[in-house]
């Protein structure tokens, strides 16, 4: 997807990529510092993406 392309083009700093399920399973913060950003690369049907986003927002 887009994240893999960005890595190949050296547009992203080399940081660990965490899958959404693993991030949610951690139950805590994914970002280590307040200035870090999180990118979600959602792949699937639009309705699946919507439900994932709703689940993430419910945890925030």
UniProtKB/TrEMBL annotation:
Superkingdom of the source species: Bacteria
Protein name per the record: Ornithine cyclodeaminase family protein
Keywords associated with the record: Lyase
EC number per UniProt: 4.3.1.12
Taxonomic source organism: Serratia marcescens
Primary enzyme class: lyase
GO MF annotations in UniProt: ornithine cyclodeaminase activity
InterPro entries noted in UniProt: NAD(P)-bd_dom_sf
Lineage: Bacteria, Pseudomonadati, Pseudomonadota, Gammaproteobacteria, Enterobacterales
């Amino acid at each position: 997807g887009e994240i893999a392309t960005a890595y190949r083009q050296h547009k992203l700093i080399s940081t660990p990529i965490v899958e959404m399920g693993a991030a949610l399973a951690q139950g805590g913060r994914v970002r280590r510092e307040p200035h870090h950003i999180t990118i979600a690369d959602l792949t699937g049907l639009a309705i699946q993406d919507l439900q994932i986003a709703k689940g993430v927002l419910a945890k925030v």
